[in-house]
Amino acid sequence: MRYFAHAELVIAPIYRLECQYTGGCGHLIVGVTGRLDSYEGLSLLNQWLRVRAQEQRRKLVLYSITGVICLHLLEIWLFGIAYYVLQLFPACGYIKNVSIAQISRPPQHFLDDIYFSSVVFSSVGFGDLIPVGPIRFMAGTQGLVGLVLIGWSASFTYLEMQRNWPLSDPDAPNSSTPNPEISNPETSNKKGA
């Protein structure tokens, strides 16, 4: 009996170290992969859009928005897979479903991890799933990463819309002639007075 108590004192720190190593490596791999995914993905999307510059300009905006959404879904799935893998090591913590009253740790569901990842990535934070234990660090970092990457994607989409979404339709008749009320503010003020 005394031997087992001593063994537990030796094994517990190793077990915690395993979680720190696994969680830290998982966090590092997912974080770097997510950033490279966004950087390389947006770069490839930009090159792909430049090759198709002769197509209808509004289609290019649709392609860029669809590409950005697909990149974010890939990042959400990468983090979701990391949550799933980290929960295989009990010392790393788990994601608890607070909407179900449970005394013990519930069984792990892969789609719950993907759902949790999407809620954290988009900073919605419904609160029905919460991280317990060291896995909380990864959840907090994912919220920051999601905020930055969504802002980056919004900037990319804005630039694509400026480049490819003209204010006037070039195919419409008389689109090259400016609207006199907009171009001459003095006449528009006189009409309103």
What would you note in describing this structure?
This protein is mainly α. The chain has one domain: Orthogonal Bundle (Helix Hairpins). Helices cover 69% and strands 4% of the residues. It is built from six helices and two strands. Strands 1-2 form a two-stranded antiparallel sheet. The longest helix has 50 residues, at 2-51. The protein is elongated and about 60 Å long. The termini are far apart.
Outline the fold blueprint:
Elements: H1 2-51, H2 57-86, E1 94-97, H3 110-121, E2 129-132, H4 135-164, H5 180-183, H6 185-192
Antiparallel strand pairs: 1-2
Q: What string gives the helices and strands in order?
A: HHEHEHHH
Mean pLDDT: 74
Major sheet: arrangement of strands: 1-2
The CATH architecture comes to: Orthogonal Bundle
Compute the CA-based radius of gyration: 26 Å
**What is the global morphology?**
elongated
Largest sheet: 2 strands, antiparallel
Low-pLDDT segments: 1-15, 175-180
Instruction: Provide the structure class.
Output: mainly alpha
CATH fold-level assignment: Helix Hairpins
Compute the number of strand runs. Answer: 2
